[in-house]
Amino acid sequence: MGAGGPRRGVGPPDGGWGWAVLGACFVVTGFAYGFPKAVSVFFRALMRDFGAGYSDTAWVSSIMLAMLYGTGPVSSILVTRFGCRPVMLAGGLLASAGMVLASFATRLLEVYLTAGVLTGLGLALNFQPSLIMLGLYFERRRPLANGLAAAGSPVFLSVLSPLGQQLLEHFGWRGGFLLLGGLLLHCCACGAVMRPPPGPGPPPRGAGARDLAGDSAGEADAEAEGEGLRVREAPPGGRTRRRLLDVAVCADRAFVVYAVTKFLMALGLFVPAILLVNYAKDAGVPDADAAFLLSIVGFVDIVARPACGALAGLARLRPRVPYLFSLALLANGLTDLSSARARSYGALVAFCIAFGLSYGMVGALQFEVLMATVGAPRFPSALGLVLLVEAVAVLIGPPSAGRLVDALKNYEIIFYLAGSEVALAGIFMAVATNCCLRRSKDTPSGPGTEGEASDTEEAEAEGDPEPLPAPKEPGSLEALEVLSPRVRSPEPEVEGEPRPAPESV
């Protein structure tokens, strides 16, 4: 269906070209979350060539993740200003150019600036617009769409890590970076898919200049809303003003609850997955079996995300998605707490299955909850601000856990801390949603509040004169309407008022 074709009803299409958008979002999400982790297979080669330590080379992935999360407000501003498709095309070129330039690096600092900063920024400029466009195409099936798109993360992580190892063995780290840079050009193809949702059809025959102008303005507004989600305000001068970053969303109590939940969640959610392999080796598990534990988490995660998305889309559970999200966080935290003393390989496998299931539920529901909380018009700004908050937590949680492991030589305390933080996030989300937000909705207004408001509105309607229309530009359709031969319908006469004389042209 073309962009100007007929549209079925009002609202997102929930299908059609939206499935192509969903496929592109699947690929972009896989690159955004899987690529920084898959690059770690090249760290030993970088350590050997540059004479650096593991912590120095690990900064490449850390910078990528910091750019992915920390540049959320920048991405929101660019999407609002230029639209989703141009931002994603530019982001794909930046991500590819970063890896290509990194293949010619002679110092580790150059790898930081190219593979870390440029590629991380390019992935960020692809990830956020893809989620925004997904919300524009899906409403009734949005939980399922979010779950399917989120499944790209474990799928690409399972594919990119072995692929990077093969490229390293056959072409070295420089050739591997060069080929991965070419692979990232697929983000440009995904960006080309992101056209705005279809607008209303063409006007019927016999429409006058005013109808044509109104329909053209409506199509332009619909396309601009789908392309850039611009927030418009009408000041007295008649010109519209675009708000590039809607920071007023921070005054929304539901958004504040979600942001605090995400901060607490990010402090401990990623810690067990990062320390799992070393924890298993410290317990006496062979290296091959320890590495297979992450594969178990990935396989369970792949199944859990679409299944949880489909479950959240049920009519009975759709209004209670925040509680389902808090339940997933609580299950993840309790899994960490109960497995802190797991030493046998069977206990670690059971932990990986439970962790992968709860982790997949969290990944499938996190953005669905935000979309349902703030709505599509404010989602770009809200997503950018939430990613910035999450970036701060990611830079605090995992590095602090690593320092505690080096200092205490004990993994149990780390699992207890991480599980407590994630469980606290789930409890806070459930309690705040049930008490604070629900109480604010159920609180009755004070006596006379509605009457005063209605009286004020009536007084404004009676006392304030209608604003004068903006001057017409020469040659515009609205200016040409004055010269059009259309016959206007006579206005009804009001008793006691003389009928105005006809205007002469």
Automatic annotation (TrEMBL):
Q: Where is the composition biased (Low complexity)?
A: 206-217
Q: Where is this region: Disordered?
A: 199-235, 439-505
What segments bear the compositional bias annotation Basic and acidic residues? 488-505
Transmembrane ranges? 16-36, 57-80, 86-104, 111-138, 255-279, 291-315, 321-338, 345-367, 379-401, 413-432
- Determine the domain of life of the protein's source: Eukaryota
Q: How does it sit in the membrane?
A: Multi-pass membrane protein
- Is DNA repair set as a keyword in this record? no
**Key words of the record:** Cell membrane, Membrane, Symport, Transmembrane, Transmembrane helix, Transport
Skewed-composition ranges (Acidic residues) = 452-465
Q: Which GO terms describe its cellular component?
A: apical plasma membrane; basolateral plasma membrane
Q: Where in the cell is it found?
A: Basolateral cell membrane
> InterPro entries, from UniProt?
MCT (IPR004743), MFS (IPR011701), MFS_dom (IPR020846), MFS_trans_sf (IPR036259), Proton-linked_MCT (IPR050327)
A GO BP entry: lactate transport
Identify the residues that the record assigns to the Major facilitator superfamily (MFS) profile domain, covering every copy: 18-437
Q: Which GO terms describe its molecular function?
A: monocarboxylic acid transmembrane transporter activity; symporter activity
> What NCBIfam families would the database entry show?
2A0113
PANTHER family per the UniProt record, alphabetical: MONOCARBOXYLATE TRANSPORTER, MONOCARBOXYLATE TRANSPORTER 3
Q: Which family does the record claim for this protein? A: Belongs to the major facilitator superfamily. Monocarboxylate porter (TC 2.A.1.13) family.
Q: What is this protein called?
A: Solute carrier family 16 member 8
Q: Which taxonomic lineage is given here? A: Eukaryota, Metazoa, Chordata, Craniata, Vertebrata
